[in-house]
Amino acid sequence: MRIDCKHVWxxxxxxxxxxxxxxxxxxIDRHLETCEICSAVLDSTRNVVxxxxxxxxxxxxxxxxxRLHARIxxxxxxxxx
Amino acid sequence: MTLPDPEFEAECIRRxxxxxxxxxHDLIRPCERPIYFLLLALLKNETDAEDAAQETVIKVYQxxxxxxxxxxxxxxxxxxxxxxxxxxxxxxxxRREDSLDAExxxxxxxxxxxxxxxxxxxxxxxxxxKELGAILRKAIEGLPEIYRNIVxxxxxxxxxxxxxxxxxxxxEAAVKVRLHRARALLQRTLAPQLKxxxxxxxxxxxxxx
Lengths: 81, 209
What we know:
The structure holds two protein chains of two kinds.
Chain A lengths: L4 H6 L1 H5 L5 H13 L1 H17 L11 H17 L1
Chain B lengths: L5 H12 L6 H5 L3 H12 L2 H17 L10 H20 L2 H8 L27 H12 L3 H12 L4 H8 L3 H23 L15
Helix pairs in contact in B: 3-4, 3-5, 3-8, 4-5, 5-9, 7-10, 8-10, 9-10
C-alpha cells in the first residue's frame, strides 16, 4: 500500500523502536526509498534519540555515587551490629 | 547505561542474604542512574531527588528478602523509588499529584517534524563539545512535564515501555503516545540546531554554517 508522509511521521517513534508490524514496516520502507524528506526526518529523529541517550548529556550530580555508597556502608554496619 | 544481568542479580541477592552484605554495592550500582532520574522527574529538585534516592536504596536493602524475582530487579527497585517519590510529593502538597494527571494525552497539537531535505548524522563524539550537551539538555528541559518524564526514563535511561509504564504508573499505550510526541517535539526543536554539529568532511551540503 502506498502511504503518505504524514502517515510515516505518525509511526516514526514506533518504527525506531521496532514496534510496527511487518506489513506497515514494508510500506514505510518503500516510502523511505523514494522520499528524501521522510528519510531525513527519520534519520534526524533516530540521531536525536541516540544523542540524548549518551550518559554525558545527563550526568549524576558530582559526588552522588560516593555519598550514596557511604550511606550504604553506614546501613550495612548498623544492620550487622 | 549498564544492562541488567538477571543471573548476576539473583546470585548477588542470594549471597547478600546469606551474609555477604558488601555485595549490595555491586548489586545496586547499575540502578543508580535510573533511580535518580526517576526521582528527579517526579520531584524536580536535585537535592530532594538525591535524598530520596538514598532512602530508596536503603529500603531496597532492608526489603531485599521480599524480592520474589517475578519481575526484573530493576523494575522492583524503581517501584520502590516511585513510592518514595510519590510519598514525598504527598507530604509536600496534594496539588502536585493532581497536576501529574492534569496534562492529558488529549492535548491536540501540531506534531509536524522539522522538514529537512538532507541530514548528516551527528556522531556521539560531538558530545565532547559542551555546547551540544547544553542544547540537548535545554530541549529536554523545555518539554512539557508528561513528555519529559517519558524521555528521561525511556530514552535517557533506556528502560523499556513496560518498565517506563510501571515506573510512572501509567498505561503502556500512554507511554507510546507520549514518547512519540516527545520525540517529534525534540526532533523539531533540535534538528535545525544540530546541523551545525555535523562533521565537516566529505560533504557537498553538510558544511558548517
